[in-house]
């Protein structure tokens, strides 16, 4: 059973109504703090709780949480129990931390003062392709004479094994990649900076309880194996991708960078936003069949800011419920051949486009392969793909009654190729 914090619960810490981190959320991150190294932190409003300080002060039980340095010493049930305890401590009726001024000074710091890391540097990264509107759009562009979806699309969640050591945290810049590109009308490729640099709007799931090689995770049990979700930006080099291998091209066109948001939002915090998801037709094979609500109503928003702009412009709004395959089906499929998964493995959903223009989760679709450049209202600039100095920020949140459970931001700025 999920531990759902009541919608009317209030903390003694002031939280703005549009904050991503009300008491109903309490997500976890990893911050580098001078003199302490990397420590586990939890977000509340615009503040972060430095958890080893609460442990030292005796507010957390040492037997339950031996260290709280990073995520490595903590499993799913310990993390979820910790969230329940933090809810108690943060509740407006609880004075344990509220009335201890000295401890508050040490244990509560502004999020803006922290260097937040990749929540867990993943040992493996898998990227799915489960946004059906994205897959249809890309199919139409690259295979105009064929059915936009390949025959397997509605039978299995297509994916590839990506690159784990280029998963980077929010705020880290992305250097424009170089690669082999076939110029228009040319017969042989050149090696040059990518001209078709793009973002992909995705959500990611961290695995908590792994599974041994030769065993499987069922669709029904999949959620109990998840630590929580983050936002993912699967940066993509379209011109490198096009020459590398069609239709996916998921090697050098993808391996240069993937950004993630800094907070792991627990499945318990996201439970109020569960929905049925879209119909699956034809019916999928029994081992991938959904059990109850396994999709999420999570608002998604992408903004772009060029170096000349003073404010970012929202270029896409979408929703996680536009995924054809649920994150549970993805995990069940990933292990359906006996492939093991481990604590801290990360998988991303695929680009989550909505059905309408303005809901497309990549520049490729928003500008229809550059044919319809995007206008930046503030400066009159145009974009087919991303230029040097452009910053992409992705935000995501579930909207509750009077509060939102959000993820913080997943931001990256493009630097020139070197
Ligand atoms: Ca992708």
How would you portray this structure in words?
The protein has 418 residues and is an alpha+beta fold. The protein folds into 2 domains: 28-116, SH3 type barrels (Roll), CATH 2.30.30.230; 125-415, Alpha-Beta Complex (Fumarylacetoacetate hydrolase, domain 2), CATH 3.90.850.10. It contains 8 helices and 26 strands. The protein has helices spanning 51-56, 76-90, 101-107, 132-142, 238-244, 267-270, 327-334, 363-366; strands spanning 28-33, 37-44, 47-50, 108-110, 115-116, 125-128, 159-161, 167-169, 174-175, 178-181, 190-193, 197-198, 201-207, 226-233, 236-237, 258-260, 265-266, 274-275, 295-296, 299-305, 313-319, 346-348, 374-375, 382-383, 391-399, 404-415. The strands form 7 sheets. Strands 6, 7, 8, 13, 14, 16, 17 and 22 form an 8-stranded mixed β-sheet that branches. A 5-stranded antiparallel β-sheet has the order 4-3-2-1-5. The longest helix has 15 residues, at 76-90. The chain is globular. The model has no long low-confidence stretch (mean pLDDT 95). The chain binds calcium ion. Calcium ion binds at residues 127, 200, 202, 234, 350-351.
């Amino acid at each position: 059973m999920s531990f759902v914090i009541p919608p009317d619960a209030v903390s003694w810490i002031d939280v703005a109504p549009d904050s991503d981190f009300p008491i109903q959320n309490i997500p976890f991150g990893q911050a580098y703090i001078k003199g302490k190294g990397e420590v586990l932190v939890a977000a509340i409003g615009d503040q972060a709780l430095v958890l080893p300080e609460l442990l030292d002060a005796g507010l957390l039980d040492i037997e339950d949480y031996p260290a709280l340095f990073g995520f490595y010493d903590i499993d799913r049930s310990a993390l979820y129990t910790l969230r329940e305890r933090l809810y108690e401590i943060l509740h407006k009726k609880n004075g344990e931390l509220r009335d201890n001024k000295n401890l508050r000074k040490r244990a509560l710091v502004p999020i803006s003062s922290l260097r937040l890391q990749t929540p867990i540097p993943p040992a493996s990264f898998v990227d799915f392709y489960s946004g059906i509107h994205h897959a249809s759009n890309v199919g139409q562009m690259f295979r105009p004479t064929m059915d936009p979806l390949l025959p397997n699309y509605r039978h299995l969640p297509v994916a590839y094994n990506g690159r784990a050591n280029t998963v980077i945290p929010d705020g880290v810049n992305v250097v424009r990649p170089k690669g082999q590109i076939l110029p228009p009308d040319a017969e042989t490729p050149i090696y040059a900076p990518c001209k078709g640099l793009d973002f992909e709007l995705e959500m990611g799931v961290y695995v908590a309880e792994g599974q041994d090689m030769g065993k499987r995770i069922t669709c029904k049990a999949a959620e109990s194996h998840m630590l929580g979700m983050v936002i993912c930006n699967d940066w993509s080099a379209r011109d490198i991708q096009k020459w590398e291998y069609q239709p996916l091209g998921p090697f050098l066109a993808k391996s240069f960078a993937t950004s993630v948001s800094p907070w792991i939002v627990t499945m318990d915090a996201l439970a109020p936003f569960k929905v049925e998801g879209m119909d699956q037709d034809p019916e999928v094979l029994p081992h991938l069949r959904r059990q109850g609500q396994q999709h999420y109503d999570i608002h998604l928003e992408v903004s772009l800011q060029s170096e000349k702009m003073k404010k970012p412009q929202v270029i896409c709004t979408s929703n996680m419920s536009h995924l054809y395959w649920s994150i549970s089906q993805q995990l069940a499929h990933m292990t359906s051949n006996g492939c093991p998964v481990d604590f801290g493995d990360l998988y991303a959903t695929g680009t989550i486009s909505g059905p309408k223009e303005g809901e497309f989760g990549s520049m490729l679709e928003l500008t229809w392969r550059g044919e319809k450049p995007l206008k930046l209202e503030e400066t009159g600039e145009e974009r087919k793909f991303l230029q040097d100095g452009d910053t992409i920020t992705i935000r995501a949140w579930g909207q509750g009654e009077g509060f939102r459970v959000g993820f913080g931001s997943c931001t990256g700025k493009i630097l020139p190729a070197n």
